[in-house]
Amino acid sequence: MKNALPNKKNHRKHLVEYANGPSLQEINGTIEVPNGMGFWRTLFAYSGPGALVAVGYMDPGNWSTSITGGQNFQYMLMSIILMSSLIAMLLQYMSAKLGIVSQMDLAQAIRARTSKTLGIVLWILTELAIMATDIAEVIGGAIALYLLFKIPLGIAVFITVFDVLLLLLLTKIGFRKIEAIVVALIVVIFVIFGYQVALSNPVWGDVIKGLVPSAKAFSTSNPVNGQTPLTGALGIIGATVMPHNLYLHSSVVQSRKIDHNDKKDISRALRFSTWDSNIQLTVAFFVNSLLLIMGVAVFKSGSVDDPSFFGLFEALSNPQVMSNSILAQVASSGILSILFAVALLASGQNSTITGTLTGQIIMEGFIHMKVPIWLRRMVTRLLSVIPVLICVLMTSGKSTVEEHIAINNLMNNSQVFLAFALPFSMIPLLMFTNSKVEMGGDFKNSWIVKILGWISVFGLVFLNMKGLPNQIEDFFGSSPTHEQLVLADNIAYVLIAVVLITLIWTIIELYKGNKRYMNQLAFETEK
C-alpha cells in the first residue's frame, strides 16, 4: 500500500487544520541514518521509537496487577508476563513494518480502506481507550505527588493537567532528545525495582520455574483474596497489551529517513527497528517481572492487604511486612517507599508523552484533523481528570482507606475500554501485513508470522472478552448483589455483541477496500 494520501497545504495557521499528509509530519523522515555504519552505530541511530512503545507496557496500570499477582499466586503468573511480552514483540514488529513499508500509520491505513462513518466510529473508540489509559496516568502522577510532597489529592490531580507545559518544552528540543528522555526515565524505573528486588534475595530457581506455562495460570478455582489465577492473568494481559501502542509504533518508526525506492534500505530500516523494539520490550518484560517478584519476595506472603499505590507505599516503609532483615532495615529509613514514588512519577510522565503523540496520530489518521499539541493534551487530560476528581470529591468525607480503594477501583475499571478497543487495532494490523497487495511480495508476513499472529489475536481477543463480565462486575464494588451481577453480565454480553458486530463491519470494509486498491493497481499497470 503506497502512500497515496495527498498533502493539502495550508498557508495560514488555524487552531484546527486539515491534515492528510505524512504521519506526524513534523518529525516524519527528519532523522538521517547514513549508510555504511557498523551494526551497533546503526542500531543506535534507529533506537528510540521502541522505547516510546515500551512505555505503554510498564505504565502505572501494570503495577498493581503484577504485584498483586505475585502476592496471591507466587511465581505462577510469570509465564503470563512472558507470553504477553512475546505477543507484544510480534504485534509491534508488524506495526513497525506497516509504517516503514506503506509509509502510513495504522490509523491512516484503516481510514484509507474504510468509509468516513466507520472511521469516525473507530476514532471515538480509540480516543476512549486512550482516555482510559490516561486515567491511570492521572492517578499515578497525582498519587506520586501526594506521596512525595504531601500535596492534597484534589490539587495533585489538577496539577497533572499542567504537564502540557512539559510537553510544549519537549517539542522545542527535538524528537531525538524526547526519545533520550524516555529511555532515561525507563532506566530510572528499572534500576529502582532492580535494587529493591536485589535486596529481597528471591529464590531464582522458583522464578525460572514460573516462566514455564502452566494450565494452573488460567484456573478459575482456588481463589486467593477474592482473585482466581485466571482473573490475575487477565489483569496482567489487559494492562500489558494496549491498542494505542500499535498506532504509535506505526507512526514513530517513520521518523527515520528511508529511501523507499531501495528495497535494501527498507529491509535495513525494518531489521533495526525490530531490534530496537525487541530490546526495549525485553526491558519492559524485566520491569514487569521485577514488579511480580516484589510481590513475592519483598513482602511477606499475604502481608499487603491494600494493593493500591497508597498501600504499596505504606508497605514499603513498614519493616514488619518485609521478607528479610536487610529489607526491614532499609524500609525503616523510608528509602524504599520514596524510590517507589519516584518510579511512579517517572512512569506517569513517560506515559504522558506517548499518550499525547498517539492522540495526535489517531486524530489526524481517522478524521484528518490537526490541532496544536497543547490544545490536544489540555482537552484530553481535562476529560480524564473529571472522573478522578469526582471520585476524590465523592470519597472526601469517608475514611482514608475507602478513598484509596475507590481511586484504585476507578483505575482498574477504566481498563474496560482497552479490552473493548483492542480487536479494532490488532485484526486490521494483521490483515494489512498479511496482504501482498498492501505489503508487496517482499514484505508481507511469512506463514509462521501469520499463524502466530492469528493465534495471538484470537487468544487475546478471547481472553479480553472472557474477562469483560468480571470487569463490569467490578463497577458494583466488592460485594455486589445477585441482581447487580446479573445486570453486569447482561451489559458485558451486549458490549461483546457490539464489539463483534462492529468488528465484522470493519473486516468487511477493509476487505472491500483492499479489493478496490488491488483493482486500481491492476488498472494502472494496464495503462
TrEMBL record:
Protein name: Manganese transporter
Pfam families: Nramp
Topology with respect to the bilayer: Multi-pass membrane protein
Keyword Flavoprotein found: no
Keywords of this entry: Membrane, Transmembrane, Transmembrane helix, Transport
Highest rank taxon of the organism: Bacteria
Localization annotation: Membrane
NCBIfam families per UniProt: nramp, Nramp_1, PRK00701.1
Native species: Enterococcus innesii
Positions of transmembrane segments: 38-58, 73-94, 120-147, 153-171, 178-198, 230-248, 278-299, 326-346, 378-396, 416-435, 447-465, 485-508
